Amino acid sequence: MTQTSRLAGTPLSILDLAHVRQGSTAAEAYANSVTLARHAEKLGYKRFWLAEHHNISGVASAATALLIGQVATATSAIRVGSGGIMLPNHSPYIIAEQFGTLETLFSGRIDLGLGRAPGGDYAVARAMRKDFRPNGEDFPALLEELRGYLAPAKPGQPVTAYPGAGTNVPIWLLGSSGFNAALAGELGLPFAFAAHFQPDNLLPALELYRRSFRPSAMLDRPYAMAGIPVIAAETDEEAEYLATTPQQMFLNLIRNHPGPLVPPVRSLDWNAIEQQTVEAKFRAAVVGSPETIRRKLELFLDRTQVDELIVATNPYDFQARLRSYEILAEVAGLAQHADEIQPDIPLEARQAVTR
């Protein structure tokens, strides 16, 4: 009897932060994002999401909506969206206009993933929103306001987002704790957990989301996605070597010295506490050869029962990054489904976009 592969039936997506490499520029990072999105589309990946970050040297995805438009223009079928927009940084009305515009330009291809963290430090949060509340307590109210702007306009509504009203851009809630997990469940929205940097809270958050879930007009059952780091190469040794680049990225963040992606190294110069901290952040990472990747991802899917994976792959060499996504696609059998992707999804079929 042939054992059923969960990996073969699980959609795969990509999370990108437009990382700048040491010795390179933001312009190259943007060009690489576009190239990667085109490559991902051909390979059969489902989504290409960009994450909002600020005041972090080496991360060039601050103007997230602009990059989403650039990537969507360069592709034709893959869904493009935010992973996510940090809603407390912004006026919900402006986000409704921005994503209503994107949805109007790229019908049926735009996702709006929302988080409640600042995507940077407190100083930059205050620079963007003078009334910023660091605990995110206003997030549910901001979300309700945003959803109202994206819904069909009501008679007598004093402020209408145009474009935006009636576009019903699919909203996801993102999180690394239980707050958005519970909120997504209560509202019947899809939920994405950031295990690529906060893996220890993954299982409790997924359990809370599923337990809290109430069917909605968007979903009749829970739909959960996990973000994880994946680096695939021809051998385990090569993949582990390439993985020292994102490990150094975490190490530099711990040391409060963020910067561009640095080349891989044969050994890392860290103390015991730094090593434990980096390894904890990297705990959900899947690194290795094709067979190792397949085995570890099957175990991860069996353990978490997530419906979709969104993968962050950040080696220093861009060709190694492309090859890693190729290997993952081959292992998961994405190529055989690539031709099934439909560029336009009718409005009435929106309930199915996450399934």
UniProtKB/TrEMBL annotation:
<dbReference type="GO" id="GO:0016705">
    <property type="term" value="F:oxidoreductase activity, acting on paired donors, with incorporation or reduction of molecular oxygen"/>
</dbReference>
<dbReference type="Pfam" id="PF00296">
    <property type="entry name" value="Bac_luciferase"/>
</dbReference>
<dbReference type="InterPro" id="IPR050766">
    <property type="entry name" value="Bact_Lucif_Oxidored"/>
</dbReference>
<dbReference type="InterPro" id="IPR011251">
    <property type="entry name" value="Luciferase-like_dom"/>
</dbReference>
<comment type="similarity">
    <text>To bacterial alkanal monooxygenase alpha and beta chains.</text>
</comment>
<dbReference type="InterPro" id="IPR036661">
    <property type="entry name" value="Luciferase-like_sf"/>
</dbReference>
<dbReference type="GO" id="GO:0005829">
    <property type="term" value="C:cytosol"/>
</dbReference>
<protein>
    <recommendedName>
        <fullName>Luciferase-like monooxygenase</fullName>
    </recommendedName>
</protein>
<dbReference type="InterPro" id="IPR019949">
    <property type="entry name" value="CmoO-like"/>
</dbReference>
<feature type="domain" description="Luciferase-like">
    <location>
        <begin position="12"/>
        <end position="299"/>
    </location>
</feature>
